[in-house]
Design a protein that fits this description.
mainly beta, about 30% strand, about 80 residues, 5-stranded mixed beta sheet
C-alpha cells in the first residue's frame, strides 16, 4: 500500500524480499519522500513523514518523522 502525498523519485525499487512468498510487500504511509535509486524490500512499514535518502537500501521499518540513508539504511535524523 502507498499512502497519499508520497514522492517516489526515479529508479526506485519497491518489492518483496523473497520472490517465492505470497506476502511481504512494504506499506508506505502518507507524506513519505523516497530518494532516487532507493531499494525498499520486504514486509516493512515506512512511517508518516519519513525521508529515505538517495540510493538507500531499506530492509527494516522506518519510524515516523525520521530520515534514513545508506546501504543498509540507518536512521540519521529524527
Amino acid at each position: 500500500e502507498v499512502g497519499s502525498n508520497v514522492l517516489i523519485r526515479q529508479n526506485v525499487t519497491i518489492g518483496r524480499s523473497k520472490p517465492e512468498r505470497s506476502a511481504g510487500y512494504p506499506n508506505i504511509a502518507d507524506n513519505v519522500s523516497i530518494g532516487a535509486g532507493s531499494v525498499i524490500l520486504g514486509d516493512l512499514e515506512l512511517g508518516e513523514v519519513c525521508v529515505i535518502g538517495a540510493n538507500s537500501v531499506v530492509l527494516d521499518d522506518v519510524r515516523a518523522n525520521s530520515t534514513v540513508a545508506g546501504a543498509p539504511a540507518k536512521e540519521i535524523e529524527k
